[in-house]
Amino acid sequence: MPSAEYTQVEHPFLKQLQALGWTTLEGDTDVPYLTERESFKDVLLKGRLRAALRRINPGPDGQPWMEDPHLDQAGGILERLGQHGLLPSNKAATHFLLKGTTLEGPDGEPRTVQYIDFEHPEGNDFLAINQFRVWPQWGTDHRGSIIPDIVLFVNGIPLVVVEAKCPDLENPLTEAITQLLRYSNQREDVSAGTDIVSAGTGGEPEGAEQLFHYAQLTVATCMETARVGTAGAQYRHYLEWKDPYPATSADVARGLGLTEDRLKSQHILVAGMLHPVHLLDIVRCFTLFTEVDGREVKIVPRYQQVRAVYKAVARLQTGKTKTEDGEFDRRGGIIWHTQGSGKSLSMVFLVRKMRTLPVLRRFKIVVVTDRTKLEKQLAGTAILTGEPLQRAKTVRKLKDLLREPGAGLVFGMIQKAQDRAQRRSVQAQAAKWGTLNSSEEILLLVDEAHRSHTNTLHANLEDALPHCAMIGFTGTPIFEEDKKPTHEIFGPFIDTYTLRESQDDGATVPILYEGRKMMGNVEQRERLDVAFQETFWEYTGEEREAIKRKYATTGDVLEAGQLIAAKARDMLRHYVTTVMPNGFKAQITAVSRLAAARYQTALEGALPDLVAEMEALAAAPAEVRQASDLAPALPYVKRVRRLRFVTVVSGTHNDPPLIKRWTSAHRQELAVEDFKKPFDPVKGEGFTAIIVVQNMLLTGFDAPVEQALYIDRPMQGYELLQAIARVNRTYTHKEAGLVVDYFGLARYVKEALDVYTVGERQGAFRSIVEQLPRLEARYRRVMELFAGQDIDDVEACVHLLRDARLRAQFTVALRDFLQTLDTVLPRPQALPYVDDAQRLGLIRALARNRYRDEQLAIAGAEAKVRQLIDAHVIGQGIALIPPSRRLISWPPTLKSTWAHCPHLAPRLPKWNSRPGTTSASTTRKTPSTIANSANTWKISSSALPITGRPRWRP
Q1: DSSP run (H or E) holding 941
Q2: CA 288, CA 298: separation in Å to the nearest integer?
Q3: At what angle do helices 46-56 and 68-79 cross, to 10 degrees?
Q4: Residues in the chain with pLDDT < 50?
Q5: Rounded to a whole number, what is the distance in angstroms from the first to the last CA of the chain?
Q6: Which residue from 32, 39, 176, 650 has the fewest beta carbons nearer than 10 Å?
Q7: How far is C-alpha 183 from the geometric centre of its chain's CA atoms?
């Protein structure tokens, strides 16, 4: 009588395969020739392989040419792969499956021999055999033999191994995966000398590894749940295939004669992955080998990656070009896949898929990123497409590569979209490149499309490639009201994969939030409050409170050495008791580079005291040890002694020694490399436990061993979500990531998650057809106010604005113009207006400064334009004044205040003159920042250009 496993799982699996076009063969565990083999040690079906080789490799005349010697030679190449272990053998087999081999033809000329005909799937042989017994190579009888439930062969080559388990078992999936690991000699702490990290027993292998030299997919199923992995995969790597795309769940149910609500995980996986066409496509376009944490691994796709690539390819083939549409190129859009879901690999998969399609094979693909490390990661992986990589290290090289006709694969940094000379000159930031290549067969692939692509740099790229298609990849698209929504730049969403979906799939781990508050105390607070009152004595009480609310910052408080030391002690204690015992690492993000460096110093200072406390506690009675909060860390005293802490920050030429020591790129690379490794006392590596940063390593940084992020600075929106996603990568025994908040971001965390865990958002281009005439009209309206006057003569224009009525007209006209300019940016149609917008902004700033006219503020302009103009103004040496209407006199008691509060360590006053003033040089150091954190005030100082009396500036 058939077992429940066969009737409920194995047989339905085979029946579904038959419906998809597979031939099935009942296996036999006693007689090898019943499964078309001479011996149970054979895993290749040589008869089917030889027949397929003759059939799919015709000669120039279309007739078979391969004779027995050729067939022996081609088959022998595959048979001799198992000499170097599982993963190297699997990599070699995959190479031959994709590229074939070269043999000498009857005419003496070399001919390529393919093992699989990817161009014509119907020409291949698809066979599924159940109960497929295999003897290990070292075996002499049934001892050590394995019997996978189902093996799928293409042209006699075993590409898929399936292990089925009865759903009634307590942990059927775990048992199925364990069995697959045993079959392939990959069980940890069992097999010695395998590719998987193993304690090893030194005994014989326990499986028949040769079967898995060729396997591209390994499947564990119990019908209710089915998961897929590959050679080298451990338990955490096996994931469900939840979407049969391009088929729908309704299609699958209809084909099986079921209602949609009765579909099981196994049905979806078989339909989505094991349809003959889909399987060959996965092998050809979605399988690769790459290095992770210093170790080579094999990657097979997740369902959302395949779905996104198929959708992108369909849009590239069917969407209208800009010429056809009349306004936009509609062949692109956004692929929004949450952080940690493999966006970089999706880009490579897309390139590989495009290169298999004649209509897309001709495209020049330009990969754009804004991070050097990610560029290296993508470049190294993209080489797997087999296409020469053209890397643009200079602006001139990038332009040259873009000009070249024809196909190609180009990598460029977004920062290279402007010359160094242009970056030094604010006036030239918007300098146009002009058209470099007007071909429609160009695709811009933009990584992290939510950043660096909402300004003139992106406009330059569009201007240079006016008819290109664009696809943006992002984990956190911009939706904020004051920024250009990502979908308005790249077009509608192609595919979405949300944070919640990723967690449900097990592709990322959940993130837990913990708020911790460290109250800061500043001595002589009363004196500081008095000083504040005297400083702003001309303001009403209501105005003074408004200043505190609106302009007080927390930066100086968060840099305070004593407060950082207290927080560092708390963080270290939390880390060694909560995170370290499971072998995980952590990051700290601080408010500034100085704060980051101080954190590192404080951690090193706190470590000896903590070790001493742990050693004393270890000698205490058991009840004392158990009652201590340090109890979880006590078994790891030796590890705690060896912990290392590093800071990773960017550098400038004039950095003080405390910061400069942490800005070396080589030193940072070594630290990050050690951080990613597990604690290893034997090798003496992996003891870099905490990395302290300001902004670096908060985006695009993948370290699965990292579990905790300690936040001590303001963050919100997509920046916050990107940061906390550093801890959501999967890792052995890692059940969740942990965000420990010392700043009070609970509300912002919730808001960010609310925005980025919603379902698919429907975005589309905002038409600019009607905006261009409006932009031109509003531009002319501003310029007409200076009729007869060249705006390059800034002083003359500012002089004209002495008239209050003209200033009022200028305010309204400029604001309308800038708002419309923001709507059009970053499209290249905005570039002709940018230079004049910056010049008008400079005129506005000078007029506001001279005439003390608050209506000249540009708060109504959007963020991009404000930033553009502010950068230009500051580049001219003009200080932006605050929105206060009064001047403030220097309080006589302020100088004595510093004497009472030496721990605040203010910088000494400097004396210089304000640009453009003819009065005596009277610039002084004034209080410019008042910080309020935990009911604590601190005053810092900075130099402000003044005439006679200091002014308040935020």
Answers
A1: strand 936-943
A2: 6
A3: 120
A4: 190-202, 416-430, 450-454, 480-483, 485, 520-528, 531, 550-553, 759-767, 858-864, 879-954
A5: 83
A6: 39
A7: 35
